[in-house]
TrEMBL record:
<feature type="domain" description="Polymerase nucleotidyl transferase">
    <location>
        <begin position="34"/>
        <end position="68"/>
    </location>
</feature>
<dbReference type="InterPro" id="IPR043519">
    <property type="entry name" value="NT_sf"/>
</dbReference>
<dbReference type="Pfam" id="PF01909">
    <property type="entry name" value="NTP_transf_2"/>
</dbReference>
<dbReference type="InterPro" id="IPR002934">
    <property type="entry name" value="Polymerase_NTP_transf_dom"/>
</dbReference>
<dbReference type="GO" id="GO:0016779">
    <property type="term" value="F:nucleotidyltransferase activity"/>
</dbReference>
<protein>
    <recommendedName>
        <fullName>Polymerase nucleotidyl transferase domain-containing protein</fullName>
    </recommendedName>
</protein>
Amino acid sequence: MDPALLDALPHAVQAALARQGATPERIAALVDDRPGDVVMLAGSYATGEANPTSDLDILVLMPGPGARGVPGTTNHPSIFGDSFDGMAGDLMVNIEYVSEEAIAQVQQAVRPATGDGPPDLANLQGLELRLVQRVSTGWPLSNAGRLDEIKKGIDADAVRASAAALSFVDTMSLLADTTVLGSPARELMCRGAAEALLTSGLNAFGRITYGTKHLLSRSAAAARLPGAPALFAQCDKVLFADRLPQEEALPWLLDLTEELFRAFADERCAPGIQALLEPFRPQWAWSGRTF
């Protein structure tokens, strides 16, 4: 990577790095990149969502698989590759090494179905969603032209649609669980349903979202959209719906899910979410709602 490219980062990012003694040279010393690699700033520093406790995320896309890493850093391997933690001054830096082929594999999972049947709903999990999110929002630190080419080959809307639909299915499944389970399992399922509902809405109307870290901040941003579904403006109450009596929480959350399902037809949403959900609609007859 080119340390000088760190000097081109937004001033707020540069200031945050400087406060923690994370100089471009210290960061670059943690990265084991080779000719042909694409190195990028990723994660919350790239999206402008970093807070004082955020790690700095560096993603290295490799032309092919291979072992990487700098001595003195700690590895957390995954099915996609190696992910090392190291310190640049007082800042924890995570450097992830992933083959470009992994991106193609994720895109293959969300490819349009062939034939006359309903589209397939890809079972994308956190690692896969994170990879697409990081590449599509990454800030180049080397080989910027190649990164632009890779980004053009990513159908982020298809990934968002799959993530939104899968989280919606999870929402309805967990809400169904609340009708048959006793306390405290019922409240736990209610909280999970609420988080899944917000995650579904955010993937539909915003950026790729996985986990709970940015649910509140992104919901606040989505709530400012004209005519946005009510769940965003009520995200504080939604996330703690498990504190409400079941006879109040269940119908209220079902109201929000029904509204969100209709909103999936909004042109601002990732396209095709309702079609992905079509095969699941008979399973939701228990709710008495129209989906």
